[in-house]
Structures are given as C-alpha cells and as structure tokens.
Amino acid sequence: MKTQRPIKRRRALRGVAYSLTEFPQKYGLGPAIAEDLFIRFGPSAVDLDLLMAAKQQKPSITALTRDIARWSSVS
Hints:
The protein is mostly helical and 75 residues long. It has one domain (22-74). The protein has helices at residues 22-27, 31-41, 45-54, 61-74. The longest helix has 14 residues, at 61-74.
C-alpha cells in the first residue's frame, strides 16, 4: 500500500510502531480506512490501540494470540 500524502510526525512515537500492513490485519480494517487512521494518528501502537479501543473495535483472535506469544517469549 503506497501513500500519496507525506507523513509528518507531530509527536514522539510511543511504544512500538505498526507497519501499514500489520495495523489493518490486526483490526480487520479496509486499506483506505487503515491508511487514513495511520496517517492521521501516526504508527504508534499505543496510540492506535487506544483509538481502536475508543471506537470499540476489537483486534482479531489471530493478532491476540500472536501478541501473547510475543509477550511470553520476552519474559
């Protein structure tokens, strides 16, 4: 997915950054909606997860199990 608009970071990145392919897969979003949110709110996983929680959009079960596996390997 290529974006035509330049991405300007207005605030510091909090947490890890989502890629433009990972974010829509996690929440089951269409490419246009995901790109719009990604550009407006930036790639910060913390910010985008908070936004999606406020919109009451839950991550997919595949994404949740992948995150749990990632967290358990860190411990």
